[in-house]
Design a protein that fits this description.
Layout lengths: L9 H12 L3 H14 L4 E7 L5 E6 L9 H4 L26 H8 L1 E7 L6 E7 L2 E2 L3 E3 L4 E7 L6 H6 L3 H18 L4 E6 L2 E5 L6 H9 L1 H5 L1 E8 L2 E8 L12 E5 L2 E3 L2 H9 L13 E6 L5 E2 L10 E2 L2 H17 L17 H7 L14 H4 L14 E2 L14 H12 L9 H10 L8 H5 L13 E6 L3 E5 L3 E6 H18 L6 E10 L2 H9 L1 H6 L3 E4 L4 E7 L5 H20 L5 H13 L9 H16 L12 E5 H7 L5
Parallel strand pairs: 1-8, 12-14, 17-18
Antiparallel strand pairs: 1-2, 2-7, 3-4, 3-7, 4-5, 4-6, 8-9, 10-11, 11-14, 12-13, 15-16, 18-19, 19-20, 20-24, 21-23, 22-23
Helix pairs in contact: 1-4, 2-6, 6-17, 9-10, 16-20, 19-20
Bound molecules: adenosine-5'-diphosphate and magnesium ion (MG).
Magnesium ion binds next to helix 2.
């Protein structure tokens, strides 16, 4: 092993540094665009070809580089942004390490054309994969044009690490989206392979940026955030949860003083403000810019500067939570519920002061009745049935007393895991306290052999809350959650159809248009077969739009779109990090949308049909809905007797 210690030649050191700063085209675009932002530009055009490998060009109308300093700008640790150590702690510019240009030059051909306002004539300077040229005079407008070509031509090892051009272009598109969102007052134009992907107008309105980068669907579904407490201000926009939600967090952007950062804690806190308005596994849309004194933010903890540390963390978290809440719900909730002339609360009113309805309430209802066709009763249905009236049903909230709204809203606001379930349903759950842990089932049901007929000797007693089927035998009472059961039935059927390669799609009378980001559009177009397999027949509709002609579910357009977006983000994730259960997940999404959402009164034969199928599934060891919630819970006779104090 050689043991002579030597200082690395500059060219090697630059290449190593380039590994960090100029890792891939998107990283280079980031550095160049940030330089343009720091130069005070209000118009920045970014152009890439072949994912940025062939060409990256960033044109800005900023301050330009003085002619005499062009060469210096390309030296390592050359920066105009940091003079001494103290500046490090109050950084308000994007760059300050002085490493970007030197690193990029080490691995690509770079041309800069630049002029300052003070100078009549500009400068052109070219370096070719680390070999410097001489600056020459050139006539040009004020600002800077940076052109980066033939990336990694001299470092084949790095080249190998690059992904397909379309994937690299996708990374650049994501970056450009975030940059545009972070600087609404800069007009960004972004071109990929000679096509304009988006261009923002720089009017400072975040909603206009959202419109340009994400499309109309998003722009219509967001509410602006502007919330100040003390010396911290939160601005940006949040997606109304009933209109916009996603299967992952890629549509969440957090900025600090206009700089994109990654921070899971802040993301979680913002999500907390959406609690109870989104189904589990769904993530909200937001763009949040935290404005606070630069001294209170340490941006220097990560070389790419996407991770930061905060002083006053607690305070900040609080402000984020309330900032998002107030954008979603207007002012803090009033003490008294809004009531109509007769003193009854209405959901519309609730909405205006804060209680968001769970999204599922908007979904047109499939019914259990539609689902079940009559078959010969298997269990003895001659037993008594009770017509349980169900005043507090989820579809009939308007009948509830105002006090109930108040209770529900408060529960929501303090953030307890509560759905807008009718009060009495909750009561039953609270008092009976059956163990709902899947592992306890067999014990609860008194079953160790999964193949046993769990409902042997049972009579169907009836249905309660239009939601649960009650059965009883000599020594045990059972409750079947009919929705959980139906979700499972649907899932099993779909899985079967999928396994048999049956067509899952149905033709839509009117095709649905969806607007996507450039990257999403690419993902779909490159993976049409996957979408087809899950029942989506899709056609390119020009720009970044698609037409959905056939779908696996026939419900509202909104539902279909939301399923499509869900499937898309799952597919995107799966492409990045393939998972074994992707197909299961996709089928689950579909069956979930198909499943029955509201309550449904059943006739005895209909109940019997459910009971028989549940029993059959139990025989196969399937005891939960696809999301792991129990289908059946039970109470032993002695448990009930204990509660009545009959036995101790
Ligand atoms: P840093 O941004 O960390 O200072 P860079 O290597 O990215 O380091 O840039 C070096 C210097 O070159 C900057 O400090 C700035 O003075 C100058 N510079 C780079 N790009 C531009 C630009 N687009 N407009 C004006 N000046 C620029
Ligand atoms: Mg820089």
């Amino acid at each position: 092993m050689p043991n002579e210690i030597r200082v690395l030649p500059e060219s090697v050191a630059d290449k190593i540094a380039a590994g960090e700063v100029a890792e891939r085209p998107s990283a280079i675009v980031k550095e160049l665009a940030e330089n343009a932002i720091d130069a005070g530009a209000d118009k920045i055009t970014v152009e890439i070809k072949n994912g940025g490998v062939k060409l990256i060009r960033v044109v800005d109308n900023g301050c330009g580089i003085p002619r005499g300093q062009v060469k210096t700008a390309f030296l390592r640790h050359a920066t105009s942004k940091l003079r001494n150590e103290n500046d490090l702690y109050s950084i308000s510019t994007m760059g300050f390490r002085g490493e970007a240009l030197s690193s990029i030059c080490a691995v690509a051909k770079v041309e800069v054309i630049t002029r300052t306002a003070d100078e009549e004539i500009g400068a052109r300077y070219v370096t070719d994969h680390g070999i410097c040229g001489e600056a020459e005079d050139i006539a040009c407008s004020v600002g800077t044009i940076m052109t980066v070509e033939d990336l990694f031509a001299n470092v084949p090892a790095r080249m190998k690490f690059l992904k397909k051009d379309s994937t690299e272009a996708g990374y650049v598109s994501d970056l450009m989206t975030r940059l545009a969102l972070s600087k609404p007052d800069i007009a960004f134009e972004y071109l990929c392979d000679d096509k304009t992907v988006f261009s923002t107008n720089g009017d400072g309105d975040i909603k206009n940026v959202i419109l340009k980068v994400y499309g109309l669907k998003f722009a219509k579904a967001v509410t602006a955030v502007d919330y100040t407490e003390g010396d911290i201000r939160i601005t940006g926009a949040v997606g109304r949860p009933e209109e916009l939600s996603f299967g992952n967090r890629t549509k969440q952007t957090i900025l600090v003083n206009g700089r994109y950062i990654k921070n899971h804690v802040i993301a979680k806190i913002a999500e907390e403000a959406f609690r109870n308005t989104l189904m589990t596994g769904r993530f909200p849309f937001f763009v949040l810019n935290i404005e606070m004194a630069p001294e209170l933010v340490d941006v220097n903890v990560h070389p790419a500067k996407t991770e930061v540390k905060f002083a006053k963390e607690r305070e900040l978290y609080d402000i984020i939570y309330h900032g998002v809440k107030s954008a979603l719900y207007g002012e803090r909730p009033a003490e008294k519920p809004v009531t109509d002339a007769k003193g009854r609360g209405t959901f519309r009113d609730i909405g205006s002061f804060g209680g968001a309805r769970p999204t599922r309430e908007k979904i047109p209802k499939n019914t259990v009745k539609n689902y079940i066709e009559y078959t010969k009763p298997k269990v003895d249905t001659a037993a008594l049935t009770y017509g349980f009236e169900n005043e507090g049903h989820a579809d009939k909230e308007d009948k509830k007393a105002p006090s109930e709204y108040q209770t529900e809203y408060k529960r929501d606001f303090v953030g307890r895991e509560a759905e807008y379930k009718p009060r009495d349903t909750e009561d039953v759950k609270d008092t009976m306290q059956p163990s709902s842990h899947p592992d306890d089932f067999d014990v609860q049901l008194g079953l160790s052999d999964a193949n046993a007929n769990i409902f042997e000797d049972c009579k169907i007693i009836g249905q309660v809350f239009d939601t649960y089927i009650i059965l009883g035998s000599q020594d045990r009472m059972f409750l079947i959650d009919q929705h959980a059961a139906l979700e499972r039935f649907g899932f099993e059927e779909l899985k079967e159809a999928y396994a048999k390669n049956e067509k899952l799609s149905q033709l839509l009378l009117t095709p649905i248009t969806v607007n996507l980001s450039h990257g999403e559009h690419d993902t779909v177009m490159n993976n049409l077969d996957i979408f087809k397999r899950f029942g989506f027949e899709i056609e390119d509709f020009g720009g970044n739009s698609l037409l959905i002609n056939e779908t696996p579910i026939i419900t509202s357009d909104e539902e279909i779109k939301s399923l499509f977006y869900e499937l898309l983000s799952a597919a995107e994730d799966n492409i990045k990090h393939p998972v074994a259960d992707f197909e299961e997940k996709a089928l689950d999404m579909i069956s979930c949308k198909k499943a029955i959402k509201g309550g449904d009164r059943l006739s005895l034969p209909e109940m019997d049909k459910v009971v028989s199928r549940v029993e059959e599934l139990y025989g196969r060891g399937i005891k939960t809905c696809p999301h792991g919630r129990p289908i059946v819970i039970s109470f032993s006779r002695s448990e009930i007797e204990k509660r009545f104090g009959r036995i101790v």
